[in-house]
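Data availability excerpt. The first of two example chains:
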Amino acid sequence: MLTGVAWYRREQWELLRYVSSDADKLEDTYDEWLESAERTFKEILKAGINLVKVDVDVDELVAWCRSQGRPVDGDARSLFVTHKIRLGNRGADQQRPGRE
C-alpha cells in the first residue's frame, strides 16, 4: 500500500493558510511545518509504511476543492493527495521503509 503525504511549497505557505478554513490547525510558518513534516515522514517510514511526497500546488488544490464542492480543509487536502496519487502525479519519488 502506498500512502501520500502532502508536500507544500514555501512560496505558497501563506496562500495555503489564507484559503484554508482550518488555518488555525496549520503551523504558523513554512519552516515550522517543514520541520514537523520531515520528522513525521521519517517516523512513518521507520514504521514500515511506503510513502510518497505529493507536491501540492495551492491554486490547483483550490480549483479541485471548488470542483468537488468542498472547503479547503484537512479532509479535502487529504483527498486531494489521494486524487493526485491515483492520477500518477506524485511530485517526489516514492520512499520505501529503510530508504530515507
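And the second chain:
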Amino acid sequence: MYAHGIVIHHNYGKAISCYSRSRHYPSLRALLCQPNVFRMLLTMRPWTTMYGRAQHYFTSTKMRQAWTFASMYVGMSPYGAPGTYALLQYSETVDGIWYPRVTRIILSDDQHTARGVRLHSGEEILADIVIVNADLVYAYTHLLPPCPYAATLTQRPTSCSSISFFWAVDTPLPQLRPHKIFLAEHYRESFDAIFIHHSIPADPSFYVNVPSRIDPTAAPEGKEALVVLVPVGSLRSSGEGSHQDEWGEEIVAHTRELVLRTIESRTGIRNLSAHILHETHETPPTWRIKFNLDRGAILGLSHSFGNMLKFRPAMKHASIGGLYFVGASTHPGTGVPICLAGAKLVAELVKRDVESVGSSDRDRATGRVFWDILLGMLGVAVAGLFVMQIRFGQGCE
C-alpha cells in the first residue's frame, strides 16, 4: 500500500499540474502540445484498468475493492475504467472534504492585501485570493481588524430568525403536502411582533416541509420526516451570549404547542405529539452560536432599501485586495438561487481582477522594455557624441 501511495501521489501531482495549465483541449494539437504529455501518458497508464492497477499493488481482494470503487464516480466499472482514474480514490483519501474553522483572515503588513487564513488549530494557509462564505457581518467583526464600517454593519436591519423543529414521525401524514404554509389569523400583528418587537408572534405563521413525501430516503417506510420553520424576531444585538435566557426551553415548548395545535386543528391530524419519535430544534441564539449568524438572522441582512443594490455590502472588499464575499448578506442578496448567482458573479469578478493584474504586469514589463531600449539608445547616442567630440576636437587642434 505504501508503494501504491507513493506512485499515485507522484502521478496526482502531474495530473493536477497538467490540468492547471490547460482547462480544455479543443483539438488534438492542443493536447499534444502539452509539455511532457507522452511521458505523462506512460506514467498514468490509461491502457490498463483501475482494477488492474490495484491488482499490481494489493494482494487483498478487499483492498482492491476499496481502492477501485471510486470508478462509480465517473459512471464506470473498475474493470473497464482507465487506470488513470486510480487518482480518484487517492484524492478522496488524501485531500478529503475540508470544513476548516477559520479564526482570522491573514493580511499583509500594510493591512491592504489578503494573504490567507488562520485555522482554529493555528495552522496558516496562504493564498493569493480569499473568498469568504461565512456570514458577512461576522467576517467583518471577527475575522478582520476592527473598522468603522464593521460597526455600522451590526446596526443595519436584519432578516428574521426562526425557531425550527426537526421531527421524526412514526406514521404517514397524508394530510400534509410536501410544502405547506399555515398563515396567522392576525396577519399584520404577527409581522409586527417579528420585525418591530423582535419577539414571537402570539399567533405565528409557519412553514412545514415533509421531505419524505418527495424523497423516500428521508425517512423509513411508513414514517415521515418533518421540518417546521416558525419565523421569529432576530436578536436585538450582536453581543456574545446575549438574550440566551429570552429563548429558553419554556419559549420553545410554548411555540411547539402553538404549532402542534394549529396543525391538528387545520388538518385533522390527531395527537401529532404522540407520534414524534425524535426531535431537535434551533432558536435565534443557537443559529448565532452554531453558524455565526449575526443576531441569529437566518437570511442575513434585510433587503430594505438601504441594503439593496449599491447599498448592499459589496462582493469585493473596498480596501483589502484579494478579499471577496459570497452569501446572503452581500450583493445581490439572500436565498439559495440568488446566493448561487452571487457566487457566479464573484467568480467572474475574481477572474477579471486576476486577468487585470496579469495585463498590468505585462504592460509594466512592456514599459520597462521600452524604457530600457530608449535609455540604451540614448546611451549609445551620448557615447557616439562623446567619441565624435574627442575625434573632431583633436582634428581641429
